[in-house]
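User: Hi! I have a protein structure encoded as tokens and I'd like to know what sequence might fold into it. I'm fairly new to this, so please keep things simple.
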């Protein structure tokens, strides 16, 4: 008598076998090699210390991770979304909280990360293998307070109260307490004083807020700019190394360069007059090939700090210089024929 085939049992066996193979496949660790990560100094751990990686507050590294398929896939998705894995360096926990230079072995440090373990991931390797850690003890010093705009250019304030504050800084650094103002804050401070928190900027980009807040008053806009005419302006020539010592610049209209009309504060006007040159003529290498006189608009050489604080502007169109390049003779060059 023929034995009947039990298709139901066969289906169950196939299904269970497939589950076993799928589970076994998922259970195998996958690798996610050579991915970017960063190590960041935890500055809150010891405010009296300046901890850095070669004077930087963070270091870029490469890591190789492994783990179950789901965990690796999730980590890969994070990386594609720009979420780079970040590790926090605690100088106290790593027993490096005394001044000096240390060598941090990265792999053992990274493998202790709790979040990596919770995700079921393992750190297989990293590059570099060792990171230099610099620990400097900060000292208390009195620093002058200076204002800066959003472009990190100095801005002259009418008053800063207090004008000096105490801050913890490296012993071998000359620093200032900075206050950064937005354009709207500058305009607001022209009307009435505003309160801001100053900070000290350590080498490598680290910043530390200072506990003492300051009140800043900026000069009123109506009192900032006045009309001035400078009648003793000097024109400077800017040449590359290819032309210097080989050509002489002959200015054909010097009287057009002698006077400059500007709008400025008294301080900006004085600083502008004290510069070696009030205008610059840029001479190009190709100018030596010209067969006729050359014409080029000059550039006003305003002091940068006063330009960014809107304390000096031109009150005329820049003049056009007429000039030509004259090759120097062998005797003029100081060489024999």
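Assistant: Happy to help. Inverse folding works backwards from shape to sequence: for each of the 337 positions I chose a residue that suits the local structure. Here it is:
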């Amino acid at each position: 008598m023929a034995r009947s085939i039990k298709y139901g049992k066969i289906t169950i066996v196939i299904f269970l076998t497939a589950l076993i193979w799928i589970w076994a496949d998922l259970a195998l660790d996958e690798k996610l090699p050579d991915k970017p990560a960063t190590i960041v100094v935890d500055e809150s751990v010891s405010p009296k210390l300046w901890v850095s990686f070669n004077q930087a507050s963070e270091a870029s590294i490469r890591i190789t991770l492994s783990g179950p398929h789901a965990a690796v896939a999730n980590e890969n998705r994070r990386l594609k979304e720009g979420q780079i894995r970040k590790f926090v360096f605690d100088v106290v926990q790593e027993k490096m909280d005394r001044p000096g230079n240390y060598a941090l072995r990265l792999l053992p440090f990274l493998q202790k990360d709790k979040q990596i373990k919770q995700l079921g991931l393992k750190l297989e390797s990293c590059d570099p293998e060792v990171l230099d850690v610099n620990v400097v003890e900060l000292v208390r010093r009195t620093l002058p307070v200076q204002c800066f705009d959003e472009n990190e250019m100095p801005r002259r304030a009418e008053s800063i109260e207090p004008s000096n504050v105490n801050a913890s800084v490296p012993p071998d650094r000359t620093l200032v307490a900075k206050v950064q103002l937005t354009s709207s804050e500058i305009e607001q401070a022209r009307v009435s004083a505003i309160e801001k928190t100053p900070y000290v900027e350590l080498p490598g980009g680290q910043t530390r807020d200072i506990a003492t807040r300051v009140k800043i008053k900026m000069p009123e806009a109506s009192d900032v700019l006045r009309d001035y005419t400078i009648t003793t302006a000097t024109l400077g020539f800017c040449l590359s190394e290819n032309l210097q010592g080989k050509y002489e610049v002959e200015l054909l209209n010097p009287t057009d360069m002698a006077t400059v009309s500007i709008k400025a504060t008294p301080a900006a006007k004085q600083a502008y007059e004290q510069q070696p040159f009030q205008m610059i003529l840029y001479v190009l290498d190709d100018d030596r090939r010209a067969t006729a006189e050359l014409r080029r608009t000059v550039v006003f050489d305003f002091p940068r700090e006063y330009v960014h604080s809107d304390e000096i502007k031109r009150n005329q169109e820049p003049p056009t210089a007429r000039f030509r390049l004259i090759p120097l003779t062998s005797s003029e060059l100081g060489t024999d024929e």
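A useful reference point when you look it over: The radius of gyration is 33 Å. Feel free to ask if any position seems puzzling.
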